[in-house]
Write a structure and sequence with these properties.
single chain, about 30% strand, elongated, 5-stranded antiparallel beta sheet, about 40% helix
C-alpha cells in the first residue's frame, strides 16, 4: 500500500513510499515496513492519505517554530559578564 511518512517531516519533508503493515494490533498502533525502515503509529509517524500527512506535518512545523522562538528568547535574555 502507498503511505506518507511524517516522522522526519519538519527537517526533511513528507516521504511517500510503498509499505506493508507488519503489526496490526489496533487502528492507532500499526507498524509498517518499507524501504526506509519501520514506522510505528498510524497518524503519528505514517499516514494512509496525503491529506492526513500534510495536516500532521503542519502541526509538527508549528510546534517546531514555537520551540525555536522559546530558544531564541532564552538566548536573547542571556548576559555574559
Amino acid at each position: 500500500m502507498k503511505v506518507w511518512i511524517t516522522k522526519y517531516a519538519p527537517p526533511g519533508g513528507i516521504i511517500e513510499s510503498d509499505a506493508e503493515v507488519c503489526i496490526d494490533t489496533d487502528v492507532t498502533s500499526n507498524m509498517i515496513s518499507c524501504d526506509r525502515g519501520y514506522f510505528h503509529g498510524e497518524g503519528r509517524e505514517w499516514h494512509r492519505t496525503k491529506e492526513s500527512a500534510i495536516d500532521k506535518a503542519e502541526e509538527m512545523r508549528k510546534k517546531k517554530i514555537e520551540t525555536l522562538k522559546k530558544q531564541i528568547e532564552k538566548l536573547e535574555k542571556m548576559e555574559f559578564k
